[in-house]
Amino acid sequence: MRAVVTGAAGFLGSHLCAHLLAAGDTVVAVDALTDSYDVALKERNLRDLAGRPAFSFHHADLLDADLGPLLEGAHAVYHLAGEPGVRSSWGAAFELCARRNILATQTLLEAVRSRASGAFVHASSSAVYGDAGTLAPVSPYGVTKLAAEHLCELYRAAYGVPTLSLRLFSVYGPRQRPDTAFARLLAAAAGGEPFPLYGDGEQTRDFLYVRDAVTALRDAACSGFTGVADLGGGCPVSVNQAIAAVEQVTGPVKTLPRPAEPGDVRHTAADITVASRAFGFRPRTSLREGVAATAAEAGPGGVRQK
Hints:
This protein is α/β, with parallel strands linked by helices. It contains ten helices and 13 strands. Helix 5 (140-159) links the parallel strand 5 (119-125) and strand 6. The radius of gyration is 18 Å and the shape is globular.
């Protein structure tokens, strides 16, 4: 297939590009290389992909670029671009979050509806849920992701664009963003800054290893499924249990207790029933296996090896 991947230089995007290439797809990668975190890390992700005959990269902002030539003939569009961060989406930062998560999605959908012929896969987030699994986000970031989902549904209903929004739950693995939980835990275990432990650590998260996530993204695109589905590891664990899993692999982790912050959901748990039935989703990587693989690539100091 000819696949277009937005946000291709990021953690999930770069893993997805590698997975698609391994499956024999041609990949048209698009990324604005924003400074949401160190751009050098994104550039390093791209270097791992560059030089492959079936891969091309385009440095472009979805809100400004001429998207027509990039989308022409695409069999699948994987929309992973956006502004991450639950805690960082409050106040003045919301405007940027809304531009990159809502307006950019609408701009891409508008360009896709008359050009691409296959699935439009939107990488949504568990942040659309509030406590007890209700569709009532408790952060501005979650509001923007839910709004993007609604846009996908509107373009499916009005124009027949085969959209699917996959709600990703706490994806982790090699090359993860430095502000994510396991990246911070591994850095703390290696002697870096203590891990900020918000609340009592008994809040639960549904962690999903990145290889399982990107496999599901492609399987969903090939399945003909449209609509919304959760993608999670299927077994929520507490933050304290996640810390223990890292310590089993690396040794002690220094923590820094902090109060819970606005936007922090107490418990998250994916219901993978729809994904399992629709495109055979089944997480295959245990938390211990995933942590060990992530730590192995990070190496001494908790930093990814060159």
